[in-house]
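#struct-queue
[09:14] JT: dropping the first one here, sequence first, then the structure tokens:
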Amino acid sequence: MSGGKETGRQKMIGMMYLVLTALLAMNISKDVLLAFITVEHGLNNTNKNFDEKNDVLYAKFEKGLAENKLKTQPWADKAFKVREEAKKLCEFIDEAKSELYRQAQPELTKEVADTFQLKNGTSNDNYDIPTNYLIGPEASKPTGKGVEIKKRIAEYRELVLSMVPEKDKAGFKISLNTKDVFDHHAEKTVPWEVSNFDHTTMAACMCLLAGVKNEIKNAESDIVTLLLRAIDAGDFKFDMITARVVAPTSYIVLGEEYSADIFVAAYSTTKNPEILVGSVDTAAKTIKGTPIVIPVENGLGKYKVRPSSEGLQTWSGLVNVTAPDGSVKSYPFESNYMVAKPSFAVSPTKMNVFYIGVQNPVDISVAGAAPTNVVATLAGNGRIDNKGQGHYEVTVTGGTECTVNVAIKDPKTNTTKSMGPGQKFRIRRVPSPVAKFAGVTGDGSVTKGEIEAAGGCIADLSDFVFDLKFPVTQWTVSMNINGLFQEETARGASATSGMKALISKSKKGSKILIENVHVQGPDGDRKIVGCNIKIK
């Protein structure tokens, strides 16, 4: 934003991105998909507002060309170049969204897909299609559409920066950052397109792409405004007043306070506008019934309400402005926000239960809250550790059940609010592995050469969600030789020289028993099932 100042609209967009970031890593539920639809709808509305604002700015350039072409032309040429490139880039992103919708729903024609809305999608939780289209088959070597999107964003960013007047360069700020990003979960730096689109659902991708368009139009608005200021402001007559509503978020939890800023684009410093909230008669431009009068300071009205019910809440009103001739001009407005019950999600990333003695990873998120403001605790035998970005590890030491409780912290008041009853999880002991020798588990047969080549006994735990190691601490080889039962015992996994000498005496038909096998498990020493091997 030029001059380092942040507008109310950008605050709203920033809050939306916090919501989006909080939801990206979780297993997608119906409620979360609805949240994405709400966020995307809000971003699309903001993009329309930017278009309206930018159209007004370009109209002023047209007026300036008519009044003083020589003075206006250099700045107008730059502004119209930005408009052209912004339009091309947004159309390129819209084409990508259209293609994504057609890949996800092949029944859609291009004409339908070009204007398709996320709320009508049937594959909003699919992440394979957007990942393959935007990243390609390998995240380590991205080749998909996201690579081209990043390239074009970077080119557009450089174009905008090249238009900034020299005296304003130090104070001009712009987003549209496509630099590589450090992935704290993967603990490595990844390309911008991988950070944004790898294993991201259709719903999240559409929100992200809408957000990119928002940044494009925001940058367009900032630079065109700056170019307009470069011309003598006295050459232009600002003759439009538009009512606006800006809320930090349009998605709140039941019991929280919804707030919004209501303002007009121009106002008198000596007389504030009158802002009324209520049902609007658009024909007469009056409020039906008794309106709510909003306090106004410096042209800005503050509307606050604590809703008592869930669902989409729509509200409207009028901004009344006194004109220079004394007449009152009324500007209607309408906005909405979503109210939801307090909710949270605790998503085990590897299993449906917690296992004793291992670090069980879970993802925890709360709709509308940033990960840094989520507080998770464990009721039961064990602990829960916060690993950052919504990722946690649960370690349990015993029992049959535990509960994960979630609350959100208000950084302003340093207080916490519970998100309701906790989520319960069963506790289970990690299953025991089985002994494996010469490639055999249970009963099996091998050649004498194969068994003589075996270096030792290992513990095999196949088809388990964790890659756990069970070091063998003790085991015994037993064999009947000429009617005499003989055995050798080893400490550790490797076969002893005595075991090898005993095995060397085997012949076709001999049976070798691997028994009394002990391993070191996550909860201590265990005796596991051995194996019976026959020489073939």
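[09:21] JT: and here's the second one, same format:
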Amino acid sequence: MNSRRLPGALVRVGDILSTMPRRVSSGALLCSLVLLIQSAWGQTDWPMYAHDAGATRYSPLTQINTGNVSKLTQIWTYNTKPTPDAMPRDARTTPLVINGVMYFVTGFQSLVAVEPETGKKLWSFEHQRNARPAKGIAYWPGNKNGPPTLFFGTDDGFLIALNAKTGKPVPGFANEGELELRKGMKDNHPNATYGLNGTAIVYKNLVITGSHVQDNGTLGGKGDVRAWDASTGKLVWTFHTVPQPGELGHETWLDEGWKDRSGVNVWSTFTLDMQTGTLLMTLGSPSDDRYGGDRPGANLFGNSLVALDAATGKLKWYFQTVHHDLWDTDLPPQPTLVDVVHDGKKIPALVQAGKTGLIFILDRRDGKPIYGKEERPVPKGDVPGEWYSPTQPFPLKPPPLARMTWKPDEIAGFTPEHRKYCEELFKDAHNDGPFAPVRMTNTVVFPGPDGGFNWGGGSFDPKLGYFFINSHDRGEVTRMIAQTPGTSKQKGADPATQPPYVRRNAGNITNPATGWPCQSPPWGELFAVNVNTGDVAWRIPFGRVESLEALGFKDTGAYNIGGSVTTAGGLLFIGATSDQYFHAYESKSGTLLWETKLPANGYANPITYLGKDGKQYVAIVANETLLAFRLP
């Protein structure tokens, strides 16, 4: 038999042989042949958090396509509750499908393996650590020193390694399969927050971890990124995300603001350029992320995309998207690797989005913006002792894709009662435009603490050259107030390290009586950006508010969080919206082709894969329920 048909790919032994050098040993030939066939079969799985190391979330499967997606049917569900009366728990995890097995973590201190065609449980592992669920799992195929391994993190700072075949802890990894990540990271602040909710990533025989540390308070756990031997758990390298004396970027921390500084952490996950061995990581805001008077300067590598040599942890380049952050406008989305055709040249590139609602398309060889950027003057605030950056970076293309400003005539007035609530909230508030500093008086801030764009990130269709991403507009009406030192009760931080000024909201910008935001819609949108031009190919309102639809108001969009998957079948799958719907759009046009209501909000990134039965499936987590769909 000379060929095996795979959806989206055709592998012929003769074609492979014809590409081999003439002088090659039979052993090398066999090895190359096996690797190529494994690579082709891997396209039918979902082997990494974002499908591939480049975080494209693109599947070459075509069985479900624009012509038949309207027939998509729910096939099975898996409820993760350990008992029927267990309290519901929020979960936003993305499963993996590898070699005929689906793996996923739950909100109930477990990792589960099931048959991806039926949802039948194969095994589960229960751990004793804090159970805030990780957003995903990392898979290592193993070597002579260790078995195929699944890695996931815990809220109290452990990396757990399980044998992918048995679900048992790997005894040779750290302490019987558990690596404590907290050691050395919060020695001077033992009560500070330190955990791992994001997804680790595997490069060759390394497993690389970020961290979850506090947003509030100034000092605490370190945000350093570290790489560990995947078979033993031994530390291989450390990258100081807050540069220490003598390191590049240290000069951007004035008045010794770097000392014991928390934040500046990878709290989502990483991207890898496997061709060049480059680790791409998005670093969060320095803490406190709302006050920076004790950390004057631009504060590298806060709010930066940083490229490292994945094998050594050595810095290659960086790009800072916000200088001296005072808004918690960090970079949760993974960078997505793309190829851009610009001025007749093919450029290895990446797309980086962030909470600001801005998107930068960068040359991934050096981090330079392909479509240019400019440093624009931004307003200065009035908080005593604060340091304000005089400028902030803006891409020349694409335009801002989330609300960054507000004007008094933009109050939503669906009913007299709603308008009255909003006018009262906004009556003494003002906004100074993009990067509006929060003043000592009521200030309208857009985007709010959730973004813009959040950790769901984007997906990319290489055939169209379109990058897809969803945004939402939920701001704040807030002000800075003085506080007595040591009195704050903000979660996760030592009261002795609280800043002298903190934010206090004037009220909820979403009317609690109706759930409707106070600014004019749309409140959520879905975009396609042509990476070859930097232009928006299409944009549509995303999500619905059913109570407003009943009054005749449509296309408002809605709050959303979570990301998308795109396929060679011409489809874009995404949950994300607060109306509990799971959607399929035509990726070329943005036309809605199918949707179904989930048992809870699908605030998770979906996946698609080919089962052993030859059928293509689509799956998504909706809190404690995992659901799978396929054609009848």
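[09:30] RK: nice, looked through the second one.
[09:31] RK: Residues 1-28, 30-41 have pLDDT under 50 and may be disordered.
[09:31] JT: good to know. The first strand starts at residue 3 and ends at 6.
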